[in-house]
Amino acid sequence: MSGPRVNSFFLGNSSGVNFSIILSPRDAETGKLQLANCSGSKRAGDWNLDVTPGVNTSKVTISLSRTLELCLPNATECCPSPLCMVETLQVLACRGSVMLAQLLIQAEIFANSSFAGNVSENATIIPNQAFKPLGSCPCNLTAGACDVRCCCDLECTPDLQQLFSGSCFTGVFGGDVNPPYDQLCSSQSMEYTPEWFPFLCVQSSLDNTPFLGYFYHGSTSTPKVPSFKIPLQTSPGKPFTGYREGDPIITEEDEYFTVPQQSMAGQCVGNAPVAYLHNFDVKCPTNLESYKEGLPHDVRINSGTADFIQQNVVYRAIKDRGKFIAESENLAAEVLCQNVTFAEHYKFVWKDKNIEQVNVTVFLGSLCDGEILTQRFTVEFLSLNNTNGEELFENPGYQVGKPVKAANLNASDPLGSLNVLQPAGRGLCASATDRPVLFGVDSYSGCILEVDINEDCSLLRGNVTEKLNALIQATHIGKRGNSSYSDLNDWVEIIRLDPFSSNVSTGGLKGICPDIPANLNIRIIFAKVGAVQGIPQQQILAVQISYSTVLWQFQCGLGCRNTLSFLPITASVQFIEVPAQPPLPVTRYQKIYAEFDCNKNEVCWPQLLYPLTRFYTGEPYSQCLAKGLFLAFLVLLATITSNPWFSKLWNR
């Protein structure tokens, strides 16, 4: 240690542990440490020992109680020389007469000094780092004292360096400010040296090193902060042509209109652009310290025709703060509070490619320090032609991410729902909720049902079936996103395949139930039947609902003390795209031709004589022709010699 105070920690339970400090435990003759004992106290010489107990960690503080000022004439209790104190301390932790831990401290403390001479006018010359390192020993952080593990510190005596000689700092921080680089011919630091290294290496001295900037002068450039300003594809004589689905909404200042949204990682991004015809509903947690105001509500928005419209803003006060305050710490009597935005709801009224109106509802409330606020931001696009609150999209097809429209046409109220499970908390079905099926989004979710070992199998099948059937409160699914309840042709009937139930008997065994319909499978077949203004129009053709059965068996835990087991039930949604028109049947000619199609068969008979044709460019045509004729001659000769009459003619 090089200062008047040092801290350490004792790990473990300090109950009943006695801490003591011993001064100069090293023997003066042999130089060895004296045998430590547990009979010391918390004070030795000018040193004091303080212990701050904790749960599993105790803080041990060793402090010096004397002054460190240099002695003036006829002064006492001061430092006679700049090196004021060199002592060895030993801290012991004992429980009774048993030593639990010990700490050896080498104290070398210099006296406090103040400059009392004349100030020199010579300025300190800082060397150019391109030619000489600015600091030859970067780990030398303390002036006039030895820094632990800094072996290049000239203020460390050999005795002190022996304490940490095996754990010195390495690299540039440890004093190696001019290391050999991998491209140097004499460098042997490369683990895998390429074959071309001896021919393309750098032959140079260590003074000419890239670490000093000979190869790179260290010029820096001011980073450019990216902004959301974009150049509009317009000119003064050509107006803005309007928005298309997915285009970012532009403000009067040619910037993106932003509302906080969730990123792919699940975090909230405060400056996320709003996309045209894309609805969202997000929740962002924040507190008073990190709260930031969003885009001002007086910003005018480009309607799509180079005109600008003003937002219609309505401010309201939050009545129930409990729906937004997710967590509240113990608040003091006097705490800082601020009026902030709890929620913002945007409604864009659109027609064709233009925005006709923007209505904003802002909910304000008081947020205090120590509270966590869950802000809510919603954006909804409503068609100008909507009636009775029902949105009629000009694109009649479904859009990816929109809820699938369901109806119960057999009831007086035709409004229906098609949902999947949404687990919450521990994942039990008792606390699970549901969420709508989104078009084009395959999903797989479920929950866990607690089942008793004495559960009746018939009752269990009924409970599981009732739980899954509650997700489908509909008899028909809308073909399009704007299907009308009054037109039966706009709907397709749901095909239901009831779960298979066998009469297999368990023989009175408990904890075993076969044919449990635990898996709900929803298959939706759709096709692209056209396009509206370049946007594909997708339409649902059929919907099938089926069940998959499982064998439930009671799982015995440790000692089988628990009489409850778990049965996972799931709901999956699969979207299957098919061609809008069935493909034409394959003709007989196409079937025969497929046998000779070189792209569909491993053996290609039409290309048997391909090297003899003009299409083959691997060799000159004359050589290919000569080789082909020679090969044909050999085949003809083999055919002739293998004939019986040739042998008879040869014998004559």
From TrEMBL:
Q: Does the keyword Glycoprotein apply?
A: yes
Keywords, alphabetical: Cilium biogenesis/degradation, Glycoprotein, Signal
Under the cellular component aspect of Gene Ontology, which terms does the record hold?
A: MKS complex
InterPro entries, per the entry: TCTN1-3, TCTN1-3_dom, TCTN1-3_N
Task: Name all Tectonic-1-3 domain ranges.
Answer: 241-383, 397-578
Q: Pfam families, alphabetically?
A: DUF1619_N, TCTN_DUF1619
The UniProt record lists the Tectonic-1-3 N-terminal domain at 113-221
GO terms for biological process, alphabetical: cilium assembly; protein localization to ciliary transition zone; smoothened signaling pathway
Q: Which family does it belong to?
A: Belongs to the tectonic family.
| Subunit structure, interactors included | Part of the tectonic-like complex (also named B9 complex).
Q: Write the protein's name.
A: TECT2 protein
Q: Which organism is it from?
A: Urocynchramus pylzowi
